[in-house]
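Data card: per-record layout.
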Amino acid sequence: MLKRLEAYFEFTRLGTNWRTEILAGVTTFVTMAYIVLVNPAILADAGVPLPAVTAATCLSAAFGSILMGIVARYPIALAPGMGLNAYFTYTVCIKMHIPWQTALGAVFLSGVIFLALTAAGIRQMILRAIPHELYAAVASGIGLFIAFIGFQHAGLVVRDPNTLVGLGNIRNPTTALALFGLLLMVALEVKKIRGSILIGVLSVTVLAWAFGMVHWTPAVGGFHSLAATAFKLDIFGALHKGLLEIIFVFFFVDLFDNLGTLVAVTKRAGLIEHDHTIPRLDRILFADATATVFGSLTGTSTVTSYVESTAGVAAGGRSGITAIVTGVLFLGAIGAAPFIGIVPQAATAPALILVGSLMLASITEIRWTEPLVAVPAFLTLILIPLTYSIANGLGFGMIAWAVLHLIAGKIRKQDWLLYILAILFLIRFLYLGTS
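The structure for this 435-residue chain is written out next.
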């Protein structure tokens, strides 16, 4: 049985084994387990019952990750997306006074559109339309993005009223412990010790508890609580209220955030082919779209691929087993939700910083001496972390690519979809600028 599974998940070709894949799955789970606490807290502001949305968060993450692992066989974990959950709550439900049930109906419809476009091959065409140089820029930009998040969680980068950001206090216990964790992980990486990131996270967690630095508030949840949100979505209400704009935002942002994450994770894992194609792309997109539909049915906002999957990849994860292990842990988290908060940010922050630094390796693939390539790549690279959005960075990069090639008279017929996407991004940015 194990041999058949190893053959299905291509252990030999990928050069992996069960121990590595399991450790990688645990690493991914540890770095993204915060979503079990954060997502319910955000959606609860929209009136969604906290115990129910906690269970829905765990269940949708488990379903999406396991589906991705089994069907697409990639080490990509899924969960309700940050950013879209805030849009769901603070823009749609609070600002626009839309009931959360109706907003879930809009999420469901965006997921159905995803599935339709995937079945028609349009999402695959969109991914292939992105120049491969921008792939490298997206991967590097996401590396800066998650490292930036890690610096914030560590308290090393803080808000500054004059310069937007500034240097934190390294004498702060959280910051000092995070820096120690980073040094420990790098030392383990240098010695090529398997599971270095997970070892570092667990070591810092133990130290944080020993020094009384963990202030843990138990969460709530459980399968029984799902009754308050499961199948409570109002699809007809979303159609009746004409929420096309909201559906479009859910669809548009998730589409490009997901594509960006997909490119970053597969590049980091070395799973992109020499011709810049991604094997089993249709299966990856199917799993992502199905997870969004499933999430809306259970009671949570858009489910998407997580950049924290790169932590598992950095720990050696290469096959779908990594995602399956992460999913199983999320499934167990439904009953163990009160214990999710025991891992402090001081422990996960150095993992994000280290993974972010490793993702910058792809920056060498960009032709920096060629302005037609360098400028769009730079805009993509820098605007992902500075605007806190993969979609924004990719959007500006594609617009710049299209405009510069148009000015240079280097338009190619096969790039027609790229120009359409650039126009759609431009319309989106102009719309956001008037809202």
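Known properties of this structure: Residues 367-434 form one domain. The chain is about 65% helix and 5% strand.

See the next section for split statistics.
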